[in-house]
Write a structure and sequence with these properties.
With 133 residues, the chain is an all-alpha fold. The protein is built from six helices and no strands. It has a single domain, classed as Orthogonal Bundle (Globin-like), CATH 1.10.490.10. The longest helix has 22 residues.
């Protein structure tokens, strides 16, 4: 995988829109309206922002040395499972993050970014499958 392309794209997203939390979660709730009630107390988006930050940290670790990403995915699948969230929602969330970032960057989304993100998301989704079997 290409950590440099992932990092560059994340920096470009931050430069272009600042905090992408609202953009990501608007798409999450559009595709998974059943998740919205779980965030009823998150009036300032801090929980959503924290979760997105943790996911991005997980992406970077998974794309790099994998010190904690696989354990984090496993742990969060258990934690979220207690809320009735199925493993397939993790894969959907990962895809939504990529799609949102691609939309934010528009024409600035390069072939290198696409290749790096597609590989990363594919590997993450494979990890979700492994963890859920």
């Amino acid at each position: 995988m290409s950590s440099e392309a992932i990092t560059q794209s994340l920096e470009a997203v931050a430069e272009k829109c600042g905090d992408p939390t609202q953009l990501v979660y608007a798409r999450v709730f559009e595709r998974h309206p059943d998740l919205k009630p779980l965030f009823i107390l998150d009036r300032d988006d801090s929980a959503k922002g924290n979760m997105l930050s943790q996911v991005i940290d997980c992406f970077l670790d998974f794309d790099g040395n994998r010190h904690f990403a696989t354990s984090m995915i496993s742990t969060e699948m258990v934690n979220h499972g207690h809320l009735g969230i199925e493993p397939k929602v993790f894969s959907s969330f990962f895809n939504i993050v990529k799609e949102t970032f691609e939309d934010v960057l528009g024409d600035a989304w390069t072939e290198e970014y696409e290749a790096a993100w597609s590989t990363l998301i594919s590997e993450l989704n494979r990890e979700v499958e492994i963890q859920s079997s």
